[in-house]
Amino acid sequence: MTLPAIAKPLLDEIARRADSGKPLRLWLRDDDAIEPTAPLDRLLTLTAAHDVPVLLATIPAFTGQALADRLAGESRVSVAVHGWAHKSYAGAHEKNQELGDHRPAQEVLRELGEGFGKLSALHAGRFAPMLVPPWNRIAPSVVAGLPGIGFRALSVFGPEKPAPLQMLNTHVDIIDWRGTRGGREVEAVIADLVRVSQAQEGPIGLLTHHLVHDQAAWDVMALVFEATAGTADCGWFGVDDLLTEI
After folding, report:
1. Taking a C-beta distance cutoff of 8 angstroms, is the pair 82, 32 a contact?
2. Which pTM value belongs to this model?
3. Which InterPro entries does the protein's record reference (predicted)?
């Protein structure tokens, strides 16, 4: 298969990493899963076609058996806790935040513990003990309490920072949230992947949101997968594989 010239910077970066003996490692997190939908089917079909594992950050308050039934037999799909209800408690002039310091940490942790229990029961065998905060924001007081309710990992957006549990962040978002709210330009996504790869040696997380994808977003995913999946010098990893590194 011949890739378009637009993919060359990423292919060159993969080759550079291979020459240095540090192959590029990627992982995929998709946010806001609740129930079976046509976009979810499209996501699972696309990732399966390229053998790319995907972590579904799932909203506990609004999900149930229907999603568990849909995922049965999907061997490359994991499920993590995406807050509780994806509800913002921030003030009118603040950025959206469900897991901030607007409520007592004990109350927030109680909800998260309920979400942990619900999803681990619904998705036994594919549940990852990871918290994905809605809007990628969480108060330090809440982070401190996560190990005590069973969480082993935390995933937000941006460079990893020290925390009392493993950080496995996403670093490149394919959605243009401040503009079209659809897929970003392919050039921009590839440039971000190259930039992050040159700045760190750890796994790079790609962030998607299947429920809001337009054709541009699906096209970006397909091109990135075609350039990276199934190659000797670059690999896509499941959360279970990456969490066993600690």
Report:
1. yes
2. 0.96
3. CE4_u4-like, Glyco_hydro/deAcase_b/a-brl
